[in-house]
Amino acid sequence: MFLATPAVAQIDYRNLDDDRPVATEDAYPVERYAFELIAPYGFEAETGGTELHSTVPEIAYGLARNAQLGVKLPLAAVDQETGTRWGVAGIGVFGLYNFNTESRNLPAISLRADAGFPVGSLAGEDTRFALKAIATRSWGRTRVHVNAARGFGPDDELSAVEPLARWSAGLAVDRTFFRSSFLLIGELATAQLSEAAATEVTAAIGGRWQWTPTLVLDAGITRRLSDTGPDFGLTVGISHAFGLRALFPGAAR
Q1: How many Cα atoms sit within 13 Å of 127 on the Cβ side?
Q2: What is d(CA 107, CA 110) in angstroms, rounded to the nearest whole number?
Q3: pLDDT along the chain (253 residues), means of 10
Q4: What pLDDT shows up at residue 249?
Q5: Which domains are delineated in the chain?
Q6: Quick check: 222 and 20 in contact, CB under 8 A?
């Protein structure tokens, strides 16, 4: 038997997950033995009238002091002039390991690995993989994050939601407001979804607010700066972080 312990979530609003609320994430995993549940909603509008509605429920677990594992289940509805298609957009699994906690001379550095499997009518045709390098550097309440990722596998048809791009990169800056438990973040990102696709460039802004000790609300908006990509994007979500400890002292050590 276990008891929930909320202490791990007191400042969860500072932990940037991928796409929550912008694509760039920070270099820190979920705390050891902690869980994080995410329930988001996303909307994208493209040229020509196509609209994408999605939700990507996610659970992550702090497997070790510097490592986490997680699973995603993307669901989507694609509205077009010919009608609406909806369904599962794949199953994703991921892991992140933090090699270095931020120090005086070095930023926090992590490596993330993702795998996306073609399960569902909107999941694409092939299994894809990606590796992402992540760095975070702090100056007081301000932090800078750099992400660079490379995708592997066939890219003839990708998932409708959060596809693992051929390559992507992001630069983000956030500012923490401790008294209001709020974080504001701005981002510039670029990606090439497939070998034949044009490069997309986007700008985004978002925020994360610690609603309760274990619940965080987030919201973000995205606008394309290039000729390709969704014209506009919106995301809102809620995350719940909690820890588990054994009833008997020392059992979870």
Answers
A1: 4
A2: 10
A3: 47 90 96 94 90 97 95 96 91 97 94 97 95 97 98 93 97 93 97 95 97 95 94 96 59 43
A4: 45
A5: 2-246 (2.40.160.40)
A6: no
